[in-house]
Amino acid sequence: MKKRKNNRISTRKGRRRANREYKDQLFCKVFESDEDLLDLYNALNGTDYKNVEDLEVNSLEDVIFLGMRNDKSFLINGTMNLYEHNSTLCPNLPLRGLLYFSRLYESYVETQKIRIYGRTLIQLPTPQFIVFYNGTAKAEDRMTLQLSDAYIQKDMEPALECRAVLLNINYGHNQKLMEKCRRLEEYSILVSNVRKYLAEGKTLDRAVEEAVDECIESNILRDILVKNRAEVIGMILTSFDQEEYEQTIRDESYQEGAENLLRMQIRKKLEKGKAVEMIAEELEMPVERIRQEMEKMKGEENSKAEK
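Now predict its structure.
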């Protein structure tokens, strides 16, 4: 029987700062069981694995030096999967993924007692990096972010690449995926309900209480919410408060990250020969906004060329 590996190393000290990470923790809770994690993997890959022992969890939690937390990482069918939940559009996800994967592979080599200096080619599990996004900034259903976009020398073949596939899991997005994974859809609905009640002007406490009650009545995550109601509510209330939420929306670094990602999307679509009007339609933004970003991009490129 395969044993699950769950490398948990935590060096966090003191009180954790309240922020939008509440959804990260809740996401972990929703996919806490191997059965649900396997179901999510099957939905993403079009597979039909049924034996949970095919899945070997190898999550690492001590990633504070990266400023990120890992939600789930696991091995299955010759692949090493890193599933991260994120509520911000961060263009540096590929770099974070690279650093995280380096630790996963280091652990893999150590636990498998692999001799990396031998003459035989070592067989390694293929990395897959999926980011589940449900922040408030607009995003396409699916985006691929590449580490090479961050490299300074664009005309050189990079020795390293890392790709992060970002999936928008806000309610109403990626509906085919949601149909294949009911747990993911229910999680999306719960978060959507919290936001709905906040938008109505309710306090966070009341918004969370009513969102949880509504989900239980509608048989949405009912097993988790009934059994762990206090834990789930506490999970949200202790790490997400109204003031922090409003500050996050206004935060300059958050806005800068969203703008950088928008320009990256525009640049990739321009490289594919798409017209400004089509880009605006696909990104659900005014044509004038796209033109403004293109002008900023052109100005930045000219400034770099002058240097």
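Residues 1-22, 63-69 have pLDDT under 50 and may be disordered.
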